[in-house]
Protein 1
Amino acid sequence: MIYQPDEDRYDGRMPYTLCGNSGLLLPRISLGLWHNFGDVDDQSVAKEMLTYAFDHGITHFDLANNYGPSPGSAESNFGRILKEVFLGHRDELIISSKAGHDMWQGPYGTGSSRKNLMASIDQSLKRTGLDYFDIFYSHRYDGVTPIEETMQTLIDIVKQGKALYIGISKYPTDKQVMAYKYLKEHGVPCLISQYRYNMFDRQVEHENIEIAQLYGSGFIVFSPLAQGLLTDKYLHGIPDNSRAARPSGFLKESAITPEIVMKATKLNAIAEQRGQTLAEMALSWILKDSRITSVIIGSSSVSQLANNINALNNIKFSKEELQEIDRILGE
Ligand SMILES: NC(=O)c1ccc[n+]([C@@H]2O[C@H](COP(=O)([O-])OP(=O)(O)OC[C@H]3O[C@@H](n4cnc5c(N)ncnc54)[C@H](OP(=O)(O)O)[C@@H]3O)[C@@H](O)[C@H]2O)c1
């Protein structure tokens, strides 16, 4: 059956925010393809999640060269689904990819050098079948490559028409500032900065978010549910087929400590009082901050995705709720 997107997908239920000082609107919730879209995953579920997301106003899909497994397969699978179901809707989509983590063998298959980034974007365009990415990121600061080399490469990628905008991910604070300055001075500002942020990992809360704001970069958050730790799924053990149980999952069993489970159990009680699932509350807690342009969620099923989108229905917290959450997190 030919996919017909929901005609009400832009009815206002999904808010859109301007990304930094740019004119680009991003949905407050974006969908990431790190897990659940590789060759090891059920492609019918992957397709269902992408169409469900689009039907609910999620216009931004986040990829990277190495997403899979196997590395690259999330891009190939996404490219196939794009052709199959989103034909005619390319201009409604913001598709991002990244390069910087290990991808192919040898000295040029990793890092932030010009060699790696230039080769990688060509490979990613080929795999997805796209003419250009809307956003292309340096996936990480590699500790070696001069910031000027990486940033000039990103600028050249834009000048070559291979990406419309550029971003950085996980850059340490000093390198974040250097990157913004170089890009601004050379006329291609940093559209967006991507960092991990969730109730369990608040490292970016002050410096990185504030610096991004100061330099006019949007701020997009990954792993908002701490890969599933901020849901009710690990409260009573490790369910089969969860990210922690799967060999391809990045979440290790060792991350599910008694302390984490204790905190998640207490947070779950607050979520229940708010009439939310813990996943919804964890997302609402991030979405309450207007400095966050968008939250990139991951999902392994349509029901999770639906639950996560519900977070938008209640992003207000009382002072008492916030204090109690801080108290639990600080224990
Ligand atoms: N820039 C970077 O370096 C970087 C790094 C990591 C991620 N990212 C981006 O951020 C995206 C999101 O990261 P993430 O996948 O770690 O996000 P996340 O939202 O923290 O975790 C997603 C996982 O949590 C579980 N889950 C989601 N919703 C649930 C719900 N309502 N109830 C119960 N469990 C639920 C699912 O795991 P199960 O499989 O257990 O069901 C799902 O796969 C990635 O896809 C990628 O695009 C970027």
Note: The first helix runs from residue 43 to 55.
Protein 2
Amino acid sequence: MVRVGHQNLPSLNEDSDGNGMRLHKYYFENLGGDGVFPKAGKLDRLIRESFGSYEDWLKDFRASSLMRGIGWVALYQDTKTGGLFNFWINEHDVGHPAGCNLLLIIDVFEHAFMIDYGLKRADYVEAFMKNINWKEEEKIVR
Ligand SMILES: [Fe+2]
């Protein structure tokens, strides 16, 4: 049974397909920007506190996105501590950290890049990074 919740999306007690739909919605909402990270603001401060610098965060996020396997890589915010961390998820509906705020997510299932990039997954990740809409991420961070 499909129940419709906020913004006409399936409720979270839905199966893998429902959660996958939500993740894809977040993925596309990440995009449409110029990829330029704002070097001021709350997100910048939290990135520096959690990773040392934006460049260190980027290095870790890129490396996570290029790990062997398929799934998702997310930048999450722990709502208890405010801290940020990158997180590998290999299923739509399993392995998401409880109590965390999803800030940024990249789809690294093969269907996300094979048509345009073939085996050049790193090129896909770079294209993603160049199109992040950081202004929207700044609105989401707490
Ligand atoms: Fe996907």
Note: The longest helix spans residues 16-30.
